[in-house]
Design goal:
By secondary structure, the protein is mainly alpha-helical. The chain has 4 domains: 9-76 and 240-309, HUPs (Rossmann fold); 80-238, Rossmann fold; 327-373; 382-474, Arc Repressor Mutant, subunit A. The chain is built from 20 helices and 12 strands. Helix 3 packs across helix 5, helix 11 (328-339) crosses helix 12 and helix 15 (390-404) runs antiparallel to helix 19. The model has no long low-confidence stretch (mean pLDDT 92).
């Protein structure tokens, strides 16, 4: 659905008071996909009017997180703080045209009003005490706020693209502040002016903002009456994300910022993109959906009305799928950076086909590759050290002697050689593989043992086995 102008324009508008929250990332994704699906524009606005809490570090984290997810925007970011004069100008236009008024109520008077409302168990809202008073009654040289004169009768209905038809009685919306006593605009005013000035046609955001829509529409309608061209936007309020226990997503459910999924949990951007897409939106039973398919398929009619539950295991399994699908050289570059082995890209690229088969995170992939760069004598896990008993040392010495004679250092030849040895000793191949794995990797889990031998190379593999073999049995 498009506006009268015919072009869909969406916006993502985070407040830079911290990292890019996982819920914000999904909102950004839905806005971006909706714009791309309809051939429209996706815009970004940084709502940095809270000077005390907004930081450059948070702005950088948000921009970096969006870039990592592959969400690009059609114009440079708009910084809300730079539009303050424009916001104030609109408040004065509303004031001059009778849609707003000066309120001289003091902080003490407002607190007394709220105390009375609490005592009477009434909703806490401004009582309109300056709404219809003659300006000549205004005290001299006293600061004032500018309040919007909201409609008091009737009701307002929003046809929300996700929530459906929602109606609120106008008397429930009080005359809220547009300009503070120091002349600075409030969030509620700034958002409306910025959305209008940016040409936003569709406001897609969390359903915790649904009440704000009823507070913001009177500004659109007043300005439309004054100067025209301020059409109501089309709203789509998407349900919030909950934790696996059904409670609102919080720190106790795990990582909240996009960078934590990337840096601490080793999630690939395409996996998080896909997972966030499926968190509250669906297309049949499809789980794995590429970026291009997402653009083709996404529309708001696929967004559910109920909160989604964040399932970390599901994300990890999806990540495992994308690791297996990913280009080996790309994975090698990421792992090389993690391990501080940027000079070993070729070896890691060669290792990826066998390393990535079981990994569900980049961390697991890096851990799985670490054995390639260990130095002798290998540091062993307790489990691995427990496998190297006297019998195992004798066996390793025999394995070393046999491998020293092997000239065809391929997985096929090595497997045939050691299978023959196991049969000769009347042992299962696993009895050879277990102590070999410990000696070669220092752990009890690794890729297939013949892959390990090939990746380490003949010289290093035999040297590692010799380091754990019984000396007397080697000669």
């Amino acid at each position: 659905m498009a506006s009268n102008s015919g072009t869909v324009v969406t916006r993502f508008a985070p407040s830079p008071t911290g990292f890019l929250h996982i819920g914000g990332a999904r909102t950004a994704l839905f806005n971006w996909l909706f714009a791309r699906h309809h051939g429209g524009k996706a815009l970004l606005r940084i709502e940095d009017t809270d000077h005390k809490r907004s930081t450059q570090e948070a702005i950088d984290a948000i921009l970096e997180g969006l870039d990592w997810l592959g969400l690009d925007y059609d114009d440079a970011p708009v910084f809300q703080s730079k539009q303050a004069q424009r916001h104030a100008d609109i408040a004065h236009i509303l004031l001059e045209n009778g849609y707003a008024y000066r309120c001289y109520a003091t902080t003490e008077e407002l607190e007394e009003m709220r105390a009375q409302q609490r005592a009477a168990k009434q909703p806490l809202r401004y009582d309109g005490r300056w709404r219809d008073r003659d300006p000549s009654q205004a005290p001299a040289d006293v600061p004032f706020t500018v309040r919007l004169k909201t409609p008091q009768d009737g009701e307002t209905t929003i046809s929300d693209l996700v929530q459906g038809s929602v109606t609120v009685r106008n008397q429930e919306i009080d005359d809220y502040i547009l300009l503070r006593a120091d002349g600075t605009p409030t969030y509620m005013l700034a958002v409306v002016v910025d959305d209008h000035d940016m040409g936003v046609t569709h406001i897609i955001r969390g359903d915790d903002h649904l009440n704000n829509a009823f507070r913001q529409l009177p500004i659109y309608r007043a300005m439309n009456a004054i100067e025209g061209g301020w059409e109501d936007p089309i709203y789509a309020h998407i349900p919030l994300i909950h934790g696996s226990d059904g409670a609102k997503l919080s720190k106790r459910h795990g990582a909240l910022g996009v960078e934590a999924y990337r840096d601490e949990m080793g999630i690939l951007p395409e996996a998080l993109f896909n997972y966030l897409l499926r968190l509250g939106w669906g297309h049949g039973d499809r789980e794995e959906i590429s970026r291009d398919e997402a653009i083709e398929l996404f529309d708001l009619n696929g967004v559910g009305k109920s909160p989604s539950r964040f399932d970390l295991k599901k994300l990890q399994n999806l990540n495992g799928h994308y690791i297996r699908e990913a280009d080996d050289a790309r994975l090698a570059g990421l792992v090389a950076e993690t391990l501080g082995q940027t000079g070993q890209i070729d070896l890691l690229t060669k290792a990826m086909p066998v390393l990535k088969t079981r990994a569900r995170s980049m961390n697991e992939l890096a851990e799985g590759a670490a054995f390639l760069f260990k130095t002798r004598p290998l540091e062993m896990t307790d489990k691995a050290a427990g496998l190297i008993d006297d019998d195992a040392r004798q066996l390793l010495a025999q394995i070393s002697a046999r491998l020293t004679q092997e000239n065809d250092w391929t997985t096929e030849a090595l497997e045939a050689n050691l299978k023959e040895m196991a049969e000769g000793l009347e042992l299962g191949l696993g009895k050879l593989a277990q102590p070999m794995r410990a000696a070669l990797t220092g752990t009890t889990t690794s890729p297939g043992i013949f892959d390990v031998l090939v990746l380490l190379g003949r010289e290093e593999a035999i040297a590692r086995i010799d380091a754990q073999a019984a000396p007397s049995a080697q000669g």
